[in-house]
Every structure is written in C-alpha cells, then in structure tokens.
Amino acid sequence: MNNFKFYNPTKIIFGAGAIKELAGEIPQNARVLITYGGGSVRKNGVLEEVYEALQGFETGEFGGIEPNPSYETLMRCVEKVRQDKFDFLLAVGGGSVIDGTKFIAAAVPYQAEAWEIVKTRACKVVNSLTFGTVLTLPASGSEMNCGSVISHRQLRAKLPFAHPSLFPRFSILDPTKTYSLPPRQIANGVIDAFVHITEQYLTYPVEGKPQDRFAEGLLLTLVEEGPRALAEPENYNVRANIMWCAALALNGLIGAGVPQDWATHMIGHEITALCGLDHAQTLAVVMPAMLKIRSREKKEKLLQYAERIWGIKTGSEDDRISGAIEKTKEYFAVMQAPTSLSAYNINGETITTIVGRLKDHGMTNLGERRNVTPEVAEMILRECL
Ligand code: NZQ
Ligand code: ZN
Predict the structure, then answer these.
(1) Ligand showing the shortest atom-to-Cα distance for residue 173
(2) Tens digit of each residue's pLDDT (9 = 90 or more) over 192-219
C-alpha cells in the first residue's frame, strides 16, 4: 500500500426528510444564496422544501447552472454574490450545480482572473466561501469531495480542479429526492459512480486489501441495484444504496494509498466538451476500450475483477479478461448506455480533434503509469468507433 493522507470534513445527513435539518447546519446570521440548475428542483418540490427549512434566514437564489457547468454562467453568479454580499452558498441539484457552486465559492474571494482557478488546477486558491449541498442526483460524488469540473464554452474546454477548501461543509442526501430522475439520469449516475470506482481499482496491485474489498463491495452493489433502480424507481432501499455508493465512490476512501488511473475520465471530458455527450455516456464508451487496449498492464487487477465481480474463474487469462470486459459492456447496455462512438454518430475525423485537445490541455501522460500518450489515446478512441 502506498503512503497517503486522508482528510474528509464533509458532514453527511442521510435519509427521507433530511432537508428539515438544514437550518441547524448553517450559521444563524448567514446570508444564504441558493444555487440550482434548469428548474428540476422547482418541479420536484425540493426548492420549496429548502425555502421552508430556511425560514428566518436572509436568502437569495441563482438558477440556470447548466449540465457541464460553464464559466460564463458561473461568473454571473460570482458578481451577484459579491454585489449582494452573500456569505454562504447552498447548492441544490446534481453534480453540475455542486461543481458550479464550488467554483463560485472559490472565485468570489479570488483576486485574479477566475478562469485561472480552473486552468492552474486551483493551486492559487487561498480560501473559499463556505457552502453546503442538497443532492438530487447521485453520480459525481461531488457532494462529498473537494473536486469540480468546469467548462469554458468559448474555449470549448472542460477541466477538473480540486482544493481542500472546497469540501462541502455538509451535504443532505435524501433518496426520495431522486425519484423524479428520468431513466437516462438514473443510468448516468450509476455508470459515473461505477467508473469512479474502476479508475481507482483497475490499475495494478499494491496489496491494498481494504481498498480492493471496499471497491468490490461498491461495484457489486451497483451491478445489483443499478438495473433495479430503472425497474423500480421508487424502491427506497435501492435508491438509498445507489446514493450512498455514489458518495463513497469518490470521497477519497477507496483511492487512498492505491494507484489511480483517470484516463477514461480525461478523454471523456474532451468528448463531452466537443460533442456534447453526457459525462457518463462518454465513460460507457471509453472505459471498455481502455481496458482492452491496456489489458496487459492491468492484467492482475482485471483477473481479480473478472473473478470477484463477474464470477469468471476458469479459462485462459485472456479469455477471463475479455469475458469481464464483455460483461461490463453488457451491464452498460442494461443501463441503456451505448458503448460505441458510432452510436452517437461520432466518426474517425472527430477522433483526431479529440486527440488534439488532449494535447492542448496537457493531457499527454495519462493513467496510473503516466503512459497513456496521445498515440495510445488515439488507439483507444479508434477501438470505441
Ligand atoms: O438542470 P437541473 O434542473 O439541475 O436538472 C438536472 C440536469 O438536467 C437533472 N436533475 C438533477 N436532479 C434531478 C434532475 N431531474 C429530475 N429530478 C432530479 N432529482 O439531471 C440533469 C443532469 O444533472 P447534472 O447535475 O449535470 O448531472 P450529474 O449529477 O451527473 O453531474 C454531472 C457533472 O458532474 C461532473 C461532470 O463532469 C458533469 O459536469 N463530475 C464531477 C466530479 C466531481 N466533482 O468529483 C467527478 C465526476 O467524474 C464528474 O466529472
Ligand atoms: Zn465521473
């Protein structure tokens, strides 16, 4: 196991009716700005419930944070926070609203040009406004980590950054608030969480047994509960298991002390920025090809994955590995997510542009061994056609 430091200060308030506990988590005299997306929280009643819980507080709101939150939209909110002197932010929505709110929290006190925060991976962030979240879409894990992914529409870029001051002070996770999700977003959430786990698990062995067993438990839960969430959307236990899995998948625990890949994600971000696919849709396409092209270097963990997740214990090593990759593609298909670029009418020419953007964004040595070069990325993308 590698050396590591683990720090996660986010308080989680989990369960049906948890929004009622909101007032007790926010400083009494705070001026609270509620941030949200395109309006799903109005339709499903979550915003009304939040206002009820915040009676007595001075509140304001900023809506319109789009999926794949854009710098351009978020800067409008930064101006509003500065002008109206809000000092606490409350993100109500999915990963895009939470990520956008993290950027706002860091940008408000930031003296330089705020895109620098993203471009320099937040290394110049000093402090940020405090904020909490009410999660309505389990997927990104943003509710319990200090990471964020922001797009710049004009530059057609979508880049990640992280900073320890960007952990939510608290996150409220009420599984009943996910009942209004359409099937595509249920599937996106399950697949995003699944690939977060494999990015931290399907690498190479370092004898990290607790991390491996924990990751495998989360994967098995998602394999079991993902299809059930599509079939029984109001099954509380199914939605609760998925909600907690998504948070645990990217809160630092299973990634502590083990090698991490993230090449699938970095390539996926470029596909979203260029072609507009949902984040998780890009992962369902790229991940199986990533495993196939890099199966040699991932052999030991792929064989462990084949046995412990898919029950594949017999046959040659190659057969067991290709069997596990096939099972993974079948699982994504059951979750209604295509696993080819052609399913989205993306062709070979676009691949050249995607590879060019990887180079522009310095993504030239990806993966747990830093050996996923633009040439390897191109091979992987061609395997996805
Ligand atoms: O626009 P709103 O009204 O919010 O509607 C959203 C949006 O249209 C809707 N939705 C959310 N909760 C709902 C609902 N509709 C009905 N009922 C509900 N309860 O779903 C749509 C997608 O929402 P979004 O927040 O974009 O989805 P998700 O939570 O999957 O977040 C995706 C973003 O997370 C980033 C991705 O890059 C992407 O920008 N990620 C963040 C990470 C992190 N912070 O650690 C890591 C991840 O790998 C990921 O990159
Ligand atoms: Zn993700």
Answers:
(1) 1
(2) 999 999 999 999 999 999 999 999 999 9
CA of 137 to the centre of ligand 1 (A): 6
Domains observed in the chain: 11-177 (3.40.50.1970), 183-384 (1.20.1090.10)
How many angstroms is it from 280 CA to the middle of ligand 2?
6
Q: What is the pTM of this model?
A: 0.98
- Ligand 1 shell residues, CB under 6 Å: 37-41, 44, 67-68, 93-97, 99, 136-137, 139-142, 145, 147-149, 177-178, 180-181, 185, 188-189, 192, 250, 265, 279
| Predicted local distance difference test score (pLDDT) of residue 128 | 95
Give which of 372, 160, 115 is closest to 273, Cα–Cα. Answer: 160
- What DSSP string runs through 32-98? EEEE--SSHHHHTSHHHHHHHHTTTSEEEEE--PPSS-BHHHHHHHHHHHHHHT--EEEEEESHHHH
pLDDT in tens, 94-148: 999 999 999 999 999 998 999 999 999 877 888 899 999 999 999 999 999 999 9
